[in-house]
Structure formats: structure tokens, C-alpha cells
Amino acid sequence: MPSEEAIQLLFMGTGTSTGLPLTPCLTRSNPYPEAFSDMVPLLRATETSHSPLAHIKGTWNPDGKFPSNIPCPCCRSAVDPDVPEGWKNKRGNTGCIVRKKSSNGDGEYKNLLVDVGKTFREQAARFFPEWGVKTIDAVLLTHGHADAYFGLDDLREWCIRQGRAIPVYLNQATYEKVCEAFPYMVDKTKASGGGDVPQLIWKIIEDDDELEIIGINVKVLAVHHGIYFHSITPSPSSSSLSQTTPQKRLEPEPLICLGFMFDSSIIYISDVSSIPESTWSRMLNRNSSSSSSSSSSSSASSSNLKSAPNPSAILPTPDDTPSSTPGPEVPGVNVNTNGRSNMGAEDKLPILIIDALWPLRPHASHFSLQQALNVALRLKPRYTYLIGSTHPTTHFMWEEICLSLQQQGGTIDGINGKHGKRQHPDRVQSDWLVNKVWEKVLTPKEGKTGKGLGEIWREDNGDSIVRPAWDGLVLEVPPRDGGGQGRDEGERGEGGDVERLDLSTRGLVY
Ligand SMILES: [Zn+2]
Ligand SMILES: [Zn+2]
To answer: pTM for this one?
Structure first.
């Protein structure tokens, strides 16, 4: 049963497709794009010198030495040891390890790697030794962008050491991208010889699949991640009256990215611009298996699982070929008329992990803060972790925005009222940004409610915690049967919550 052991999620990367810091920010190749000044204002030298915080180490100093002379607060923080916890601004491509101890009682974890992006090798070297990740037992890919699969080639040594092929679960569109980028991984005749190639077994999954992978129940959550255009050539019949060659035309289509729900406890959506209604139903009825979910448009699921069509892709069978064991059958959760989950407090979704690129602006292929919060309002998780943020907003600024939601007032004074201001080099810009977020995002009235998002959050979701995630953070959800009781609560983060700060790896400034 999936719930007998605690499930852990270890953040390998929480950044964008480029990762942070951006080298041109460090080299000041473009000192500070004007386009960003409405997101976080640049404190120019004169303003900085008048700032009451000008003396604080880690503040931008245009005449100083590297890295204090870098204007972008986020990229500077990532490399400046004088910025408190500035290393949290060093972010790799989004990806994580989801793991659980194996059921055979040997105490060893089995590790499911979600996405293998451009920064995989670097992130693995940073974190795996401290986390004790010694094997990669299966891989899930979200979509066919470089930041999700360009690190596949670095799995070769893992395959050799483990002495078996690694199963990779991905949808058909992503598989086709892999075939284009790494032909030798799907067809050994394309390898030039002499070098090792990763031994991978391709497992094509569908948008509404439910699987069990290394003892973890995985429900696929298909979402849109921007749109792309593909060319269509009209059929000859439609242009038969004309002698001209049929003209190709471009048709827009949403790019499908896969989110996942693990053991009905953790929802992970790394790249999203909109969520189809069928996926909402799966999330709101999270305790239903696919086969009993009224929302599923096609039959579930593990039985649909098929290997990739290319016979040369079929490599030696690994020890842990996924079984077709369905997930636990638990009565579904009612959904009330406003489409929100009716779950009792004890049955709250423990963790939502969701894409939020910028606090103030929308984006064509990623959620903004506003969209991420609206998802949290509908799902009502106990904890929401924001991922995928980019510069110039810093981790400290995201923390301050999140704190402002959970405290009285909604203004800087509101924050001060409870905990007092934290001294930080980003303080002045952060104060500006938090006020701007309340003015532009959290205060404007939503729909017919007559209330702003911030007010709705406090009334509706007041006991829910929202935080920015960081590379190296470890989360843990105890088993539902209470098997984890008795563990020292001091090992957890503040308030005995889901954060395992004792396991979390603090990043190094380089
Ligand atoms: Zn930057
Ligand atoms: Zn993408």
C-alpha cells in the first residue's frame, strides 16, 4: 500500500529554463534591462546611499567590487556570501526526487526522478551525496523542453552502476522530442560506438493515467504550458477547384505538460499556463482512482501503459518493472457548487507545488503569483510551495510576499505588526514590491465577490501556508495510517510542519 511509509519530495531545482543566476547579469553585459524596472526597481547609487540600509553588506554598490557591483538583486544574491541566505537564489531547472523506503524492510529508499534538465548533473552533484541518493530507480518527464530532458545523457553512469536499464515515463509528444535530440538513446544503431549510452526503457503514458512506480501511486495531471504552432496542409479535396498547390497553414495547439499527484498527498505542477477542467476534477477528487473517477474521459490507466513503438528502444528489463497495481480505493471527495473541495480539515491535501514565474506580471506559458494563489484557493492544500521563479525577484522578496498573505493588514506595517521587519539588503526593494503586489494583484476585486484575492485568501484559506521553495529543500508527508508518529518533531521545520530541515541541503555560494 502506498501509504505505509512516509513520502519525501526533495527539490533538486526550483528555477526556470535558464536557471539562476543569469551569467549576463553577473557580467553586467546588460546592466539591468529597463523592462524589469516595473518588477523590482533598481536602487541607483544616490538612492542607495540615502537608504537607511546602505551600510548593510550585500547591498548593491555600483562602485564596489564583484559581486556587490551587480545591479540585479536576485543574481547578485546568488553569488554574494554577504547576502543572508542569498544562495537560495541559485536555482536549477525545476526537478525533484520523490522517494519512499522500499516495502521489503531493508530501509533503503527507492528514488523516482522527476525531470532531467540541463542542470541535472550539477544539481545531483550538489545534493545527492547529502541526501543519500544512491540509485535512480525510475524517471518521469513532464514535457519536451530542454530544461526537462536535456540531462538524460547524464544517466549513462547510473545505468552502468546499477547494472540495469532505467524506465522513463513520458508522453508520446515528449518521446518524439527525445528521438530528435538523442537518436542514439532510442536506436542503438545510431550510436557511433566506443562510448557508453544510457540504457533507458521508454514507457509512454497518457494524460489520465494512474500508475504505481517504485511503490508510489502516481496520477498524471495534464495541463497546458503555452501554445505552439504546427503546420497543416489542407487535404486535396478542399482545394480541388483550384490548380494551386495547397497552402500550409499554422494551427495553434496547447503544449501539454504533465503534472503529477503522488500518493494522493503531493500535487506537483512545474510548468503551466492553464488547467483543463478534466484535470481539475482529478485534483479535486484526489482520493478516487482513475477507474472510478467520473471525470476521466478514457479508461484508466496502468493497463494503457505501453512501451514506445520503436523496437530498438526495448532494452533489458529492470528489476522494478512497474506493476499494474491500482492505487488505493478510497471514497471520492465531494465537490461543492462553487467547484471547491469539500474536504474536512483532516483530509486536506498536504502539499501543492505550483509554478509561479513572476509576482506582478502574467506570462504566456507560466502561471503568475495570482494564478498560483487561485489554484491554492480552489484546492485548499495545507502547504503551497511556489517554484519556477525568475530574476529580478529574490527569494527574500517572495518570502515577504507570502508572509504578507498570512498576517494582518496586507501592508508593510501589517507585517511589522506581528514579527517586525527582518533586516536584509533587499529590504527597500522588497517593501516596494510587497506594496505593489497588494496594489496590483491582491486588492483589486475578483469577479462578483466584491473582494480582493488577498482578502479572500485570509477569509477562506487563513490556516494555509504559502512559501517559495528552494533548491535543496526536503518535504515529507507522514503515512496516513500514522506510521510515522513518534518521530522527533524537532527534526521538522518551524511548527512541526512538512519541511525536513535536518535533511535539507543548504546551497553553497560559488
Ligand atoms: Zn538577474
Ligand atoms: Zn517548458
So the answer is: 0.84
